[in-house]
Specification:
heterodimer, A: mainly alpha, 14 helices, 0% strand, globular, B: alpha+beta, Cytochrome-c3 Hydrogenase, chain B, 3-stranded antiparallel β-sheet
Chain lengths: 375, 377
Amino acid sequence: MILGLIVDNVVLDALIRLGVIMLLVPVYMVIITWAERKVIGRLHMRLGPMRVGPYGLLQGLADTIKLMTKEDLRPTTADRWVFELAPFAIVVPIIMALVALPFTADILIRNLTLGLFYIVALQGLSIVGFVMAGFGSDNKYALIGGVRAAAQLISYEVPFILSILAVAMVASTLDISAIVGLQGSTPLIAYLPLAFVIFVIAGLAELYRQPFDIPVAESEVVGGPFVEYSGIRWSMFQLGEFVSMVLISILGSLIFLGGWQWPLGGDVPVVGQMALMAVKTTGFILFFMLMRASLPRLRVDQLMAYCWQLLLPFAFLQIIINGLVLAYDWPNWTMTVMSLAALGALLYLTNRAARQSGVTYQPSTASAQRVGSVL
Amino acid sequence: MAIEHSAPEHELETIDINVNVGPQHPATHGVFRMILTVDGEVVTDLDPVIGYMHRGNEKLPENCDYRQAIGYHDRTDYLAQFNTEHCYVEAVERLAGLTPPDRAEYIRVILAEFNRITSHLMFLGAFGTDVGVFGTSFMYAFRDRETIQDLFEEVTGERMMFNYFRPGGVAWDLPDDFNERARDVLDQVKRGLHDIDGLMLDNEIFLARCRGVSPVSQEDAINWSLSGPLLRATGVDHDIRRAEPYSIYDRFEFDVPLGEHGDVFDRMVVRFKEVQQSVRIIEQALDQIQDGPIMVEGMKRILRPPAGEVYMRVESPRGEYGVYIVANGSDKPYRHKVRAASFSNLSALRAMSIGHYVADVILILGSIDIVLGEVDR
């Protein structure tokens, strides 16, 4: 059984497991990169990578070799240690978060009783790396990108955590394996659709993917915090980005979609568990890719307004609904109904805000006066 | 150890930073450079720098035969080559007193309107990228643009610098199956417009991003000498094809799409609707075109218009494109001046941008739809 110790020593066992994960992560990243380029290429009516290997399968490998052998440039005016350590500050916490993430019932490094808390805490740490990269590069695009990243991450962390908190309330545990164990017959998304939608939207923002790619906006700040990075350091940023994407996808499938249990019930063989997890995680990742190919990006103030004026109140609403249902022992379906109603309201308000925005938008009066002096 | 707390005497001091955008930047659509003064995310000042692509396109034709200079007009507005050629060729014809045969006029109008479509499709695709779509709008627009490019290639033998119109007519006749092929292409364009409509014009985030950004009043638009879609987005009904019909534009029925607020969204919608109107014009022209000569009878090898001057203007996709020529009776123009729509429109950039967010300035620049070859000439 895989859950048992591989070797007798507990520390050595954890190190071996961590090593295996560390080796698998870059491989997985290569595959995901290839898949993303292929999917987006198809959406663009292109073929995507086709030259290296059959159907371009080895493209990721070729890119890796290219990035590894590229010169590692550092601007002379950059703050050396801040600049060079920033990629690590992004990648290390995310890899550490993988330690507590169960992939199936048995394939995991360590199952922590406070696993959910641990993952969320480490996932939020990567902001430090973005700010370091932004400030250390001595580049104005990077600076703007870094500040944008800080503002965005701090704002969206709140609804993100609240949506996870809603799960923890219902499950009354922070142990991820236990949360999955509860979902043998019904996944938690059935009770908490609002929390799930907030989780996905805030997750998109945490990952800087369209429509929330404001910190790295190609047409504005040309890559944001990464603009001065090259070669292996740049690919570490990419690694961090892809691993967080996988992390959030796996987390979402575990706590909302029933992980390795739903819909096959409690006793699924390991292969079935892995297949279930793969399907659910791929669903998330495909959704992120589709968003990337079809949506433009929001403006900074719209991003903030959306978070603080819509997502956050509705995340609290989900918590209140949970509290009411749990405190008064109302039947479970009331939670579903209330959550769905709130979700409908959220979507309606989002649509209305987008359709009506700009009708009243005016540049500030001070700037209008300045325009007057220009002409 | 006691920590001393002292109340700050004034607010935290902040400074505006200058951000240099361009000449190599994904959002500047060529070698345009602007120096933004940024207070946080808000642009407080903008200093446009042009001239990176100056090649003397106005002076060079003064040393050329009248017909040799056509190629320089391909190279000013290199996204609307037929429209610029049309303008120059017609200016020379007015100088020399030539009247091209009907078929040549129809060929010119069809190709110029097709060129308007390619130019606006280019705008729609690139503008989507400015707003942040990861290339999808670009690929959708280019799918249809490419079919039109193939048509151009078949007619002229060139993809970009066509050099096909001549004073007195066109260089050679259309291919035999042009009429059918052009109709197929139009069908494809109409289908493609439907996709772009769904992807861009009806997208909530596009609405949220573009509406209300940089509204321009009709008064300002006229004072700033805006022309083309920027002017019509403010609601001013001025299209040179309608206002002072040149060539044979008075024979076609078409609407002049107008906006309401003059904001970025209206500029996009006006261009989108202009594509539909161009399709209408081409369909009528394809119905009406007859066989016949394509060149004025008895053209001389060397064209020597009598002394005089002419200002000819056409409605190019970007606005009013004008050519001013002074002839002194020789085979070369004495003076040759181009009035470029992008240049005038771009000069309003500063006034349109100040007070907006950095992200919006990128949109405003994109919505002007500059072609640097035309700005710098």
